[in-house]
Every structure is written in structure tokens, then in C-alpha cells.
Amino acid sequence: MDDPQPPQRANARLAAGRARALGLPTRGTTNPNRLRRMDNWITATLSAVLRTAADPLVIDLGFGATPVTAIELSDRLIRVRPDVRVLGLEIDPARVAAAACTADPPRLTFARGGFELAGQRPAIVRAANVLRQYDEAAAMQAWTTLRAALAPGGVIVEGTCDEIGRRACWVLLDATGPRTLTFACRVDTIERPSDLAERLPKALIHRNVPGERIHALLRAFDSAWDAAAPMSAFGPRQRWTAACTKLREAAWPIDPSRARHGELTVPWTAVAPT
Predict the structure, then answer these.
(1) Between the CA of residue 83 and those of 13, 87, 97, 104, 151, what are the distances in Å?
(2) Cβ neighbours of 261 (radius 10 Å)
(3) What are the residue ranges of helices labelled H in the chain?
(4) Given this model, what pLDDT does residue 9 score?
(5) What angle, 0 to 180 degrees and rounded to 10, lies between the N-to-C axes of helices 68-77 and 36-45?
């Protein structure tokens, strides 16, 4: 007779069985390296979360038509913590079945699940291009559901990007709510920073109108970009970095530490809907 399952494994399976998969199948493309910018930001800024987690479980929510981005996430995070476990979740059982052949337990596994996270308690959730198909109220409810499922100290990275990952925006959330907003791009593909408005998360994309904080930030960023035009002689990345510096000089509470990567992070309070 086989040995009985360890209690923690049995409890996890029971929890997953009780949880009703919440959400809709993701849509759109799943291109290799589409989420590289988000993954690099996670490994650079959230490494402490992963290293100190009692259970190094990371969930890739809505991995899409193919599991390639979940595989890439696993490969990148293993450099931060060798015993990391990535669980790819999808509502569509056919996608889960197709991804199973790429699984590498316990490092990389796949299961059916949605916003309830299949009863798991992850340290990090990456939800890319998942909430864009929902209306704002439903997206905010999804945030609430995801936050409730986090392990103590856990975080969520939720955002959108274009089909080949050259333009992206994402929000960092913890159990208390949204903490920051990050813009990221391949700088030579934009004409102005406000080009990234089309990739704003659902909580902000309809708020880019006069009177809203996100609108004020994007206008200020464009103005800083214009003022930094002389730096374009040294390349678009140098111009982006100079524009970030000018934003900070204008008293915007930005974090320019990763400006050279084509990124800019601001506290959520600086852009939250009014």
C-alpha cells in the first residue's frame, strides 16, 4: 500500500477541489519573451519577497494559449531562489492539458484555476493581460479576490503589455491594496511617454482625462520628455532617463532607479483615481 499523502499536500488538494474557478479564459497572443520586462522587474525588485517566503510558490495566472511565458518565468525566478515553484493557472481545461507536457514538477506545474488561485496561497502572483477584458468594477473585484488568497507578505503584479512586450504597465499590490504603478517600454518604440496610456491597467485606463492624477502625470511626463529633447543626440534611453530626472525635479514622487531599463515607478497614491 502506498504511504498516505503528507498532510500539507492533502490539504492543498482539498482546497483546490473546493475552490470554484473564477474568471474567463484569457485571450490574445502568448509570444515568447512577451513578459520579459515584467519578469525582469519582478526578479530585480521582489527578490526579497521570494527569498524570505516560507513557501516559494509563484502563480502565473492566465498563462494563455501556450505555456511559454510560465516556462520563462520559472527559468528567471530560479536564479533568485533555486527551490521556487511556479504554478500556471488557466480557466480553459484544454490549455491546462496541452501545457502538461511541459511541466517539470515540482519546479513547474499547471492546473485549472482563476482568481481564487485554485485554493493556493502564493508569495507572488503574476497576472499579465488577464483583467483587460473585464470592466472596471469586475477588475476591482478580481483584485479583492486575489489579495485575499495571498500568503502573508505576498504580492501581486497585475498589468498589460502589447503583443511583443515592448510597451507595458503594471500595478504592484499587497494584502492592503495597490502600492505602485510602473511604466516600462523599449524606449525607441515610443514617440512620447503618453503612448503608454493604451497599456494602463483597467483601474486607470478610463481615468486618463483632465482632473485625474494619471492624466496629470502623463502630461507632466510628456513635458519632461520635450524638455529632455537635447539628450536624444545620445540615444532614446538617455532622453528617457533625463525626462525621469526632470519629473523628479518637478516634485513628482517617482522612483527613477530603473530608468536606464526604460522604466518608471510611482506610488499608487500619485495616480489613484480621484
Answers:
(1) 20, 13, 24, 12, 17
(2) 18
(3) 7-18, 36-45, 47-52, 68-77, 93-99, 136-148, 202-205, 213-227, 236-249
(4) 43
(5) 30
Residue 170, class by beta-carbon neighbours within 10 Å (0-12 exposed, 13-18 middle, 19+ buried)?
A: buried
Q: Residue 38's CB: how many other CB atoms inside 10 A? A: 24
CA 53, CA 49: separation in Å to the nearest integer?
6
CA 223 from chain centre, in angstroms, equals 27
Q: Which domains does the chain possess? A: 7-184+255-268 (3.40.50.150)
Residue 71: the pLDDT is 98
Query: 126 φ, ψ to 5°?
Result: -105, 120
Dist. CA 80–CA 108, nearest whole Å: 15
Nearest CA to 111 out of 54, 50, 160, 63 is that of 63
The answer, yes or no, to whether residue 37 has pLDDT greater than 70, is: yes
